[in-house]
Amino acid sequence: MKLKFLPPAMMLLGAQLLPLNIAAADGIEVNHLGVNNTIVRITGDGKYLLLPVQESIDDARIAVLVDGKPAKNLNVRLAKTKVDYMVPFDLTPYKGHDILMNIVTTQSRSNVREIKEDACWKNIALADTFDTTNTEQYRPVYHHTPLYGWMNDPNGMVYKDGVWHLCYQWNPYGSKWQNLSWGQSTSRDLIHWDRSSKAVLEPDGLGMIFSGSAAIDKTGSAGFGKDAVVAMYTSADVSQIQSLASSKDGGYSYDVYAGNPVLTLDSEARDPNMFWDDNAGHWVLTLAHALEHEMLIFTSPDMKEWTLQSSFGKGLGAQDGVWECPDLFELTVDGTGEKKWVLICNINPGGPFGGSATQYFTGKFDGKVFTPDTDANGNVPTKWMDFGKDHYATVSFSDAPDNRRTVIGWMSNWQYAAEVPTMQYRSANTLPRDVSLFKGEDGLTYMSSAPSPELSALRDKRTVNVKNVSTGNKGREYMLPATNDGVCEILIDIDSKKADSVEIKLSNNANEYVSMIYNASAGTLSFDRRESGIVDFSQDFPAVTTAPTFEKSGKVSLRIFVDKSSIEVFGNGGKFVMTNLVFPTAPYSQLSVKAVGGNARIDNLEIFSIK
Ligand code: FRU
């Protein structure tokens, strides 16, 4: 840009006269216009503009202009006093064009001289690569995480042509919630994920891209072609409206539908989840009527014209938070031919252990109306899908093979998700789980979540194999595998016999531990992470969570997955699950099993290192 008016303060730089408030460095021209406004012009070459981030700073608003026309808006916590990490702005789509950023910050400064000292202007750079090599000690080894940046809910989950597509709420410009886009990873085995460094859907004129679903349109009813993968998501700005995007390449990329929005309401509604109902012969959409604490059910012949059929949930189940991220599907009750529908209603806050959690209802669905099961007293029971603190926004893959219903959740909690001790990325997903229904001893129908069968392939060496040993007050101790920083899978079957309780403890040399207590007479398993390692980043993090074991025999069978910063406990074949984050300063290296008030028996203990 040619400066038309030269400001009065000038300095001599080489032979050139530049105004005091312009710095020209390595292909980037930075022009401070005032205490809160800077223009950055790209004059050099590079695939990326690397933007320095300081997490404690408020967002700067960046309007990107290409050839003078508005192209994109982003919000980035541009560094003031120190750089926590860099994020890449991809310049390749604009190669050969004039790129300019109009940046407004909210920092308090008394004059333009001060803004020049900000760390972001000293470190902003052009580069041809952006290094995503892991830098985080707590990054999981076998759970999905984004390459970098913030992640929350899983989105647009669909299985197509042998590939599991997992999109997710993603901020490509920082590790806190902002600039919500859909990131995408794909997998053939639910373990190894190809993580795209590009968003598949990015904020547009209708707003940020909030959560939603995807499904295969087998007949081409929506006009995007037979077998097109179609996504429906919430466009979120001042209001929340529902939009479509379709894929021509089987779900790897999406084109936003020009006729958006396809559904608008006069109140907050989000997270559309749709499926084709074969019996009814129409599309069914469940939509979270968040602040009303209910789910709305719509139908459509073509995904574009939606008719409201019913609503479900007002006054039912947990009501102490907003209702979000629904899912509706049919399952068979194990061991019977009976079929029932499940309506998942994620809720935040208001979970059993504070903050976010996933509740569900079982019942009937006639294509338009969901009618919940009731207990013996005619009440609608509240049921939870997971009894840990870090299981949220869980929904299922559409079109999974072999009649499977496979779910994945966000492994965090809105109470502290933005404060957990990682920076390069924030949040992982839960392990994939295959859900089914079972009848509890109380006669009610519950949903079980078993680790997806693919996960057995994670096992490497069996490092411990113990059968039928008794344990008492002194307890028994076993080493956890040291390979791969202690990540492992533990199988343990316990018969509590005469004992009041049995404690299973994972500990390290720094006196950090997780204690799980099985109380056979109460029929519960509790998980105590108060001394698990770093816990002080939020007062809501140190906690004890408790699950019902759905078993009266005095026996419990656990499958425990330990990764670098999480422990998932699947009990009695998935009848109960507990997902909890942990941040030990050194890997847990020991497992002890101790009985209180009498002897118990370890029927089986196997520990596997992870490949
Ligand atoms: C749930 C949620 C959704 C929303 C998304 C925004 O965690 O609040 O309701 O679509 O996150 O990121």
* Mean pLDDT figure: 95
Number of strands: 45
Ligands in the structure? beta-D-fructofuranose
Q: Indicate the proportion of strand residues.
A: over 45%
User: Order of strands across the biggest sheet?
Assistant: 3-4-5-10-7-8
Global geometry:
globular
CATH class of the largest domain: Mainly Beta
What would you note in describing this structure?
This protein is an all-beta fold. It has three domains: 124 residues, Jelly Rolls; 303 residues, Tachylectin-2, Chain A (5 Propeller), CATH 2.115.10.20; 158 residues, Sandwich (Jelly Rolls), CATH 2.60.120. Helices cover 2% and strands 49% of the residues. It contains two helices and 45 strands. The radius of gyration is 26 Å and the shape is globular. Beta-D-fructofuranose binds next to strand 12, strand 16, strand 20 and strand 24. The site of beta-D-fructofuranose has 12 residues, from strand 12, strand 16, strand 20 and strand 24.
Characteristics:
about 600 residues, mainly beta, Jelly Rolls, Tachylectin-2, Chain A, 3 domains, six-stranded antiparallel β-sheet, 2 helices, about 50% strand, globular, binds beta-D-fructofuranose
